Amino acid sequence: MPADPAATRVTAVLDGTHAAGTGGRLKINMGPQHPSTHGVLRLELELDGELVVSCRPIIGYLHTGIEKSMEARSWLHAIAMTDRLDYLNPLGNNLAFALAVERLFGCAVPERATVARVLLAELTRINSHLVWVGTNAMDVGALSVFLYAFRERELLLDLFEEMSGARMMTSFIRPGGLAADFPDGWFDRCRAVVDSLPARVDEYEALLTDNPLFKERMIGIGRLAQADAVRLGCSGPLLRASGVAHDLRKAHPYCGYEQYDFDVCTAIEGDCYARYRVRIAELRQSIDLCQQALDRMPDGPVRTADRKVMPPLRAEFQQSMEALIHHFKHYTEGLRPPAGDAYVPVESPRGELGFHVKSDGSGRPVRIRERAPSFANLQALPLLARGMLVADLVAIISTVDPVLGEVDR
Amino acid sequence: MSDAVRHQEPAAHERDGSSGWMLSRVQDWSRENSLWPVTFGLACCAIEMMATAAGRFDLARFGSELFRASPRQADLMIVSGRVSLKMAPVVREIHAQMPDPKWVIAMGDCAACGGIFNNYAVVQGVDRIVPVDVYVPGCPPRPEALIDAILKLQQRIGRRGGA
Amino acid sequence: MTALADDVMRDLPGVAVTADRDGIARLSVDRARWRELARWAQARGFERFLDLLAIDDPTVADRFELLLLVYSMTERCWLRLCTRTDAHVASLTDVYEAADWYEREVFDLFGVRFDGHPNLVRILLPDDYPSHPLRRDHPLGNEPVDFTVTREERDA
Question: Any CB–CB contact under 8 A between C141 and chain B?
Fold first, then answer.
């Protein structure tokens, strides 16, 4: 039986033994304005027919100078800017920043705030994976899943709005605890939403997981070998779908994650379908983690008692002159973490997200740098794309799930 | 900057002839009720723009049935997100590629005035590059705010022929 | 941590092991031994490249502090490698391939040149951007914002 010419050509591209056909190679530009690049990502593609010979990502189209802006302001202002980095995971960014600053202060956070942080981080992970499921399905042609996923997302955004006033950029997790306590009845409404989600995820799976068209577009596409994933610093579902059971919530627990009951979701094939399965599993697992957090939510304060880190409540002004002074200094001068470097990463929906913060003891940050998981994940894209068809590129980019806000900062 | 001046047709009441006036009114009505945006999501505001197009807020009921990927098939550019230095020429080019009549909504604080990023990297308002018809404040603006902007734009088109 | 310190004392004479506030061990070397240190770390099991960042301090001669963050999957711990330079340092792309984009970013924003990098061009800013903005003595580039002070002034 003659060899399949398409497979032979793919092998030749991957080996590097491929010679340009009689038609020559086509250099094509994809992006930065493109419906399926998940943001302003530009790709320079070299194609032989429909086959991708090489793919060179060009980033920087969303460079905002956030790191410089944070240095120019105070530590408090920096909190608001962290929301806008990975804009699908705003509370997760807040959490990573808060943990790093708290490490510099060496201050403890009350139990209620710690459990609430887990709850909010997992709700944000659900939010991010819902956007991912919706946009990934839309990219490969299943347009209605987008509408269903965003329907669920609206329920969660309503919760965030009730709690903080803003749907997306809440800046709710701050060094020392939370910005405020939760409104009355919020936990009941949260539980109602979270309890309704597993049935919804079943709906998405019913539409996608065994759908032959979806499988055709995702299985065997964009394989990432385990060794490459580790070597290139990939993290998150991209790493776990290649068979590496590394999740910061298990390996280096923060916010009491060691007390929760959950598994690390992995797959071994390393292709787009494996990454889809890992994210769906994480979605279900986050729902379970939210329920566990709601079950164990204790009473108590949500702010640390350390007045250098968090301002006192306004009710204390009546009794204490010191409280008034602390409040004033906090909001005029900002935080003054002790000198030192700290990096405390969290597991964001995209991988290892951490802020390297350096303080010199004055109120102005010396350096706040975000270790963005999408920056490293996107570096692996040329490896994933080689030998694939142009039409598969969309599925590959989608399952790498870059957020250009954190790539370009 | 000559192509930044939009070559719009005169307002309905400025056109002569009663039959011409009726035709212009029909044209304006059809334009305002079928504003098709180009997919131009840049940053966080793009996610709220997607939420506006999704089920709860449903931009399609106001005429924006489809977001067109090609600027040549769109008549509305919703600049949703911060415009960086590298992206600025791209914004200009996409706007230039859109056929007349075209409109621009600056969605969010970053597109309107640079937002919280008053620094070397962000263009302080997309109106430095393209002419803007409606500014939507917010960081990010609520979907209702974006819908309000589109309704205001529709009123403007209907009233003055898009001028 | 003590096993690491022993190995450093044996293989890398003259390199001190310190710990930062986050508990991550830090090895600091001169610019001349940067590649040697990176190769040692990789051979020691820190094969996962995570981050490369620069911190600028214009008050000292070697103003740029470069911090490399690597991770060992077997020992489940991070390691921070540190050096200082005033202008250039050896590229680590042949040791850690993932350093490619990170070195380009440090070049773009700080102006540190990496000798031996295959493609040292800007990555985040436009190719013709004239300066390196994240240097501490580089201005923020902000514009003055006009505020109305009083209604009388505004209406006058």
Answer: yes
pLDDT digits (tens, 9 = 90+) for A262-306: 999 999 999 999 999 999 999 999 999 999 999 999 999 889 888
Close Cβ partners of A342 (under 8 Å, ≥ 6 residues apart): A100, A101, A103, A104, A356, A357, C20, C21, C22
Q: What sign has the CA pseudo-torsion A148, A149, A150, A155?
A: positive
Return the CATH number at B112.
3.40.50.12280
Q: Do B51 and A157 touch (CB under 8 A)?
A: yes
For residue A72, the surrounding DSSP H or E stretch is helix A66-72
B85 or B15, greater pLDDT? B85
Give the range of the structural domain holding residue A331, as residue numbers without chain letter: 66-380
Residue B12 in contact with partner chain A when CB distance is under 8 A = no
Residue with tokens 């505001």: B45
B106, B135 in Cβ contact below 8 A? yes
Question: Under an 8 A CB cutoff, do C125 and B118 touch?
Answer: no
Numbers of helices and strands, H then E, in chain B: 5, 4
Matching residue, tokens 């019913």: A206
Beta-strand (E) ranges in chain C? 16-19, 25-29, 48-56, 64-72, 77-85, 88-90, 113-115
Helix axes A90-105, A111-139, angle to 10 degrees: 150
Q: Check the CA dihedral A359-A362-A366-A369 and report its sign.
A: positive
CA A408 remoteness from chain centre: 14
For residue A366, what is the domain's CATH number? 1.10.645.10
Place of tokens 């990463």: A345
Q: CA Rg, chain B, in Å? A: 16
Domain count of the fold of chain B: 1
Does position B79 have pLDDT exceeding 90, yes or no? yes
Residues of C with CB under 8 A from a CB of A: 20-22, 24, 47-51, 53, 55-56, 67, 69, 73, 76, 78, 96-98, 100-102, 109, 122-126, 133-134, 136, 140-142
Segment (H or E) for A91: helix A90-105
Query: Do residues A272 and A280 touch, judged by C-beta distance below 8 A?
Result: no
The answer as to whether A193 is a domain residue is yes
Mean pLDDT score, A377-392: 91
Of B31, B27, B47, the residue nearest B39 (C-alpha): B47
Global pTM reads 0.90
- Please report whether residue B5 resides in a domain: no
Chain C residues lying within 8 Å of A63, measured CB to CB: 124-125
Task: Tell me how far apart the alpha carbons of residues C139 and A101 are, in angstroms, rounded to a whole number.
Answer: 25
In a domain, A28, yes or no: no
* Domains in chain C: ranges and CATH: 2-155 (3.30.460.80)
Distance, CA of A244 to CA of B162 (rounded, Å)? 57
Range of the domain at B52: 15-160
B1: in domain: no
Report residue B42 as tokens. 């840049």
- What tokens appear for B15 in the block? 């056109």
Angle at C101 between CA C97 and CA C107, to 5 degrees: 120
Determine the residue among C127, C131, C134, C142 to mutate to test chain B binding: the one whose Cβ has the most chain B Cβ atoms within 10 Å: C142
Chain B contact present for C45, CB below 8 A? no
C143 touches chain B (CB under 8 A): yes
Establish if B124 belongs to a structural domain: yes
B9 lies in a domain?
A: no
Using the predicted structure, report yes or no on whether residue B112 has a pLDDT greater than 80: yes
Long-range contacts of C144-150 (CB under 8 A, 24+ apart): C145/B118
- Exposure of C142 in the CB half-sphere (CA atoms within 13 A): 15
